Amino acid sequence: MDIKGFTFSAVEAAIKKPGRLDLALICSETPAAVAAVYTTNKVKAAPVLLDMERTINGTCRAIVVNSGNANACTGTQGMDDAVETTRLVAEGLGVTEDAVLVSSTGVIGVPLPMERMRAGISPLVAGLCSGTLDDVARAIMTTDTFPKLEARKGVAGGKEYTIAGIAKGAGMIMPNMATMLAFLVTDAAVDTAWLRTVFSAGVERSFNAITVDGDTSTNDTAFIMANGAAANPVLVDGADGAADFVRLLDEVLLSLAKLIVKDGEGATKFVEITVKGARSDVDAKRAAMAVANSCLVKTAFFGQDANWGRIFAAVGYSGADVDPDWAELFFDDVQMVRNGVFVGGDAEARGSEVLKQKEFTVTVDLHLGDGAATVYTSDLSYDYVKINADYRT
């Protein structure tokens, strides 16, 4: 994958246990514009708090990330460790300390094993000439079962550029940043302020439109770095090629978000939930998320039970404006409810057949307005409980 001006590295530091890559580095050869979206959880990990300060200036050179330890709820020591990590990387790269960002994911409440982190940073920096983005994608995994990568190519001002991204996440996934991390890089030249705007909007349509279990992590972060190595005219709102850049960015973000849901802990189903005909888009999203987060709905999906009543109940308590006498519900193209009442006939059997598929859609039409929203979720299986019962061991 050719992304001009970026290098990558990953090493085994045995942060939680040996035998896997768990410390990674993304580096731009020149200062890059950076935009970020962070968790809305009021309990934020040390790396998140540090990055929130450092991304204010809009540029960075590198991101160092570890898995196996979240460095969250670790007090002043956690912040000291996050700062030291960035300082060691900065010294190795020959850049200023505030040009390095840091992310962590893993167990909460355990101090970082800094002796292992220190030992890993030197080979991490040395490996930038030979590492790949795929290596980084593997190093940031926790309960993920596969690495998540996506890329698109575009052209602006006659110059070809690439947008590439990786993400991790399988559980503790809920919008408002959904535990997930995402790192995107592009060699396109992009205005920093505009990059922040379009990245934030793209995250809202992707990572903030997924849920596996309704939990919002202390560490959720999404970054994009744009270093301009493609030498295109700077992209900004209204510029030639700007609309294509936004489209490609949205495609990468949504693809990564869907991969997170498909890899949901213990998941056997990938479900697209659309609410339309709402009073507003906000109402539609509120109702769709209520359905997507309902344990009763998700267990029905796992059991392949066309229990549409659970879906209607979730829409009803969501806080969205609802008139049950107008509402309709479909599993794929099988109508289950019309004017708030079960349609009867063989709809139950046909709906159950839809739910036997690995992927299907649920559509609720409220017939109250033009508001619409789509979110993505998984089912809730026995394995989800098993995975999270043993997470710290």
Would you mind describing this structure in some detail?
It is a single chain. The chain has 393 residues and is α+β, with helices and mostly antiparallel strands. It has 2 domains: 6-262, 4-Layer Sandwich (L-amino peptidase D-ALA esterase/amidase), CATH 3.60.70; 270-389, ArgJ beta chain, C-terminal domain (Ubiquitin-like (UB roll), Roll), CATH 3.10.20. 34% of the residues lie in helices and 28% in strands. It contains 11 helices and 15 strands. Strands 1, 2, 3, 4, 5, 6, 7 and 9 form an 8-stranded mixed beta sheet that branches.
Brief synopsis:
The chain is of the alpha+beta class and 393 residues long. Helix content is 34%, strand content 28%.
* CATH architectural grouping of the largest domain: 4-Layer Sandwich
H/E topology pattern: EEHEHEHHEEEHEEHEHHHEEEHEEH
Secondary structure: helix percent: 25-40%
Total tally of structural domains: 2
Gyration radius, in Å: 22 Å
The biggest sheet amounts to: 8 strands, mixed
Uncertain segments are: 172-178
> Distance between the terminal alpha carbons, to the nearest Å?
36 Å
Arithmetic mean of pLDDT = 91
CATH superfamily of the largest domain, by name, is: L-amino peptidase D-ALA esterase/amidase
- Judged by helices, strands and strand pairing, the structural class is alpha+beta
The DSSP helix count reads: 11
DSSP strand (E) fraction?
25-35%
